[in-house]
Specification:
It contains four helices and five strands, in the order E-E-H-E-H-E-E-H-H. Strands 3-4-5 form a three-stranded mixed beta sheet, sandwiched between helices. A two-stranded antiparallel sheet has the order 1-2. With about 160 residues, the chain is an alpha+beta fold. About 35% of the residues lie in helices and about 15% in strands.
Length: about 160
């Protein structure tokens, strides 16, 4: 996940791996020593994650709307799954969640109350359309990056 793992509001530093911290935004940030192989079976390459993180950061800075991305199972009812997930994302009130459930071939976009007038249904539809074209080619990261860029370009300035 690009904007960091979704975590409960209370995370004990005692439970984090060595070299990891919880940032002010709620993300878990950890070190990786150069030359050491990743031991996790990551679904995306490091370059893909960097591209996604850059898009999330640029979109957030440009619009002052927090962008969050989620890739995973949203359950049988993907709309309800996205509705349940959204309040747990960082800064939900002033953010956008782009949730992708690859097995159901679904994209769900939610926005917080504080940004609802700027992140309209039209903006969400533009993002979903941008994402779906890349998803059809099997490129999840490119779809997410496209959605973030299109949405951040369409969101009215604060």
């Amino acid at each position: 996940m690009a904007s960091g793992d979704l975590i409960p509001a209370t995370v004990s530093a005692d439970n984090l791996p060595v070299g990891s911290v919880v940032t002010a935004s709620g993300r878990i940030s950890g070190v990786h020593r150069v030359g050491e192989p990743f031991t996790d079976d990551l679904p995306f390459t490091t370059d893909e994650l960097v591209r996604l993180d850059d898009a999330l950061t640029e979109g957030t800075r440009k619009t002052k709307v927090r962008f969050n991305a989620y890739v995973g199972d949203l359950g049988e009812n993907t709309a309800a799954g996205a509705d349940a997930l959204f309040p747990t994302t960082p800064e939900a009130e002033r953010s956008v969640l782009i949730a992708v459930s690859p097995n159901q071939r679904t994209v769900e976009i939610r926005s917080g109350r504080a940004v609802a007038k700027r992140v309209t249904d039209r903006v969400a539809q533009l993002g979903a359309t941008a994402a779906v074209s890349s998803f059809g080619d099997g490129d999840l990261i490119d779809g997410l990056v496209s959605a973030i860029r299109v949405m951040s370009a369409a969101i009215a300035s604060p």
